[in-house]
Amino acid sequence: MTGPSCTGNISFVPTDGTASYSVSCANTTALKDQVIVMPPGFGLTSEKIYNIHVETGAILDLAGNPMPVLFTLYDLAADGTQYTLTTGTDETVPAILNTYPCDMCERQLSYVDPSSSVVYTDTVVLVFSERVFAVTDTAAQIILADCGSDMVCDPETDVVINYFDVGGSSLTFTSMNLVYVDVGALPGFKRYKMTVPANAFTDTAAATTGPSSSYSFEFVALGTETYYDYATMAVSATNVDSVEDALKYALSIDTSDMPSYTVCYCDDQRDDTLEDLGDGDTTYKIYEDLKCLSGSLDAASAVVGDRTVAEHVCETKCSKGCSGPFCYCDGYESQTSTPDTLCLPPALCREACDASPYCAGINIHDFKPQCLLLPAGGECIGAAVNATDVLPDSIMVAEEWQLFSKTVGTACTNLADYEERAGSLFVTAKVQVAVDYVLHPGKMGCARKSTSPERPAAK
Questions:
Q1: Is residue 117 located within the same domain as residue 133?
Q2: CA 124 to CA 102: how far, in whole Å?
Q3: Most buried pick, 150, 279, 341, 405, via CB within 10 A?
Q4: According to the model, what pLDDT value does residue 353 have?
Q5: What is the largest CA-CA distance in the chain?
Q6: pLDDT of residue 450
Q7: Of 388, 425, 426, 384, whose CA–CA distance to 406 is shortest?
């Protein structure tokens, strides 16, 4: 992320020794795993080669940790090559790089202009790849639709609530690459979908128009009093301590924060509005008691544990004996194991699927460390996801197997996803007294006795 909390500049340093161009990190835009430097071009000389210098503190992760200094003159890419930027002539069409709110995000509809510090309210911001204007005499319109009470956008059920003329008064064009759309006072805590028409905007030279195709994005408008930050307010159950019937969560709270909190729960299996955070995260949804008759080992060269995915095939790994921490040969039977069955526990099977772009899901055995990788576009996983009434021959009902489909994106990133109230959490600076504390028989426990400074502790 960037913004007011960042410090330092991002500089473009010419390789010919001439003066560099620097922009404050506060005037950049963080878009998930990308940083957009505004305004585009900012006077860089065409047909020139630049190195990039990012000062420490100019870019932060979501936890607020600064990225170390980067200078591509000395810091090489992972493949050992040197990264440089070569400018050219403007021949590309204007494109939308980002929006506020961003796609699948939620926030209040207010924005502080980075050049004037003017606050725009009831506004959606379009961030273009260059400065743009409306095409002369265009009849194109931006469409805003309400996605309904289920918070899921669907063209068949969405209700169009407004049209905005690209050349009308609802749009404000700035001296930068920003376009403000005045959407009016929208009801809060609802999901909307905005569609920007193709070729309705032109660059400053009127040479090209864009975007090349219509651009749609979804967002949730939050009320002015509502605050939610997925990075700091959402916690996931710990893999180590959680069991099937009890989930455990680890969190730390500053005692200077609010003394009480409402605890809400999100079920990732019910979240149909996944958000791509740019971190490669995936979400798996379960379809119980289904077993595909075969899996896939396409592109199984990724390393999981101490060997490649292909080498985790049960027959290959376990038929002649296996030693080491990644064998997982418990329950292996040569008579029932298929050539594509992997001897891996669920967590490592998911890791293997995430490592392959051709994997669309996994089949997991309930109590044996065995699984199948399911190919994208396969008949079996398609029948499960589409809830086919009559199962094809490639899939069968099996109570000891569970099928999981893989979807790119992170669940539970929106406030509306937390539909269930789990209770309340109270934070105190000291142990509460006049209450009963119960220790479970047969389990290790401890109790601490404290006294006030005026009274000595009992011996």
A1: yes
A2: 9
A3: 341
A4: 94
A5: 90
A6: 55
A7: 384
Give the amino acid at 188. Answer: G
pLDDT number for residue 414: 87
Domain C-terminal end among 221, 238, 264: 221
Contact 177, 127 (CB under 8 A): yes
Q: Where are the beta strands (DSSP E) in 139-214?
A: 141-146, 159-165, 171-173, 178-182, 190-196, 201-203, 209-210
Tell me, yes or no, whether 4 lies in a domain: no
Residue 257: both structure tokens together? 């924060």
Is residue 37 assigned to a domain?
yes
CA 65 distance to own-chain centroid: 18
CA 222 – CA 190 distance, rounded (Å): 8
Which stretches of the chain drop beneath a pLDDT of 50?
455-459
Same-domain pairing of 404 and 417: no
Is the domain of 186 the same as that of 233?
Answer: no
pLDDT of 341 reads 93
Give the CA angle between residues 336, 357, 393 to the nearest 5°. Answer: 40
Do 270 and 359 reside in the same domain of the chain?
no
* DSSP one-letter code for 416: G
Indicate whether 64 and 81 sit together in one domain: yes
34 close to 14: Cβ distance less than 8 angstroms: no
Q: Parallel, antiparallel, or unpaired for β 215-221 and 105-107? A: parallel
Instruction: Please give the structure tokens belonging to residue 145.
Output: 């639709």
> Distance from CA of residue 376 to its chain's centroid?
21
What pLDDT is recorded for position 292? 92
Query: Does residue 418 sit within a domain?
Result: yes
Provide the pLDDT for residue 397: 92
Residue-number span of the structural domain to which 386 is assigned: 282-408
Number of domains in the chain: 4
Name the DSSP class of 232. H
Strand partners, 313: 342
Angle CA(358)–CA(362)–CA(368) in degrees, nearest 5? 140
Residues in the chain: 459
The per-residue pLDDT for range 126-149, each reduced to its tens digit, is: 999 888 999 999 999 999 999 998
pLDDT digits (tens, 9 = 90+) for 273-319: 888 888 889 999 999 999 999 998 887 889 999 999 999 999 999 98
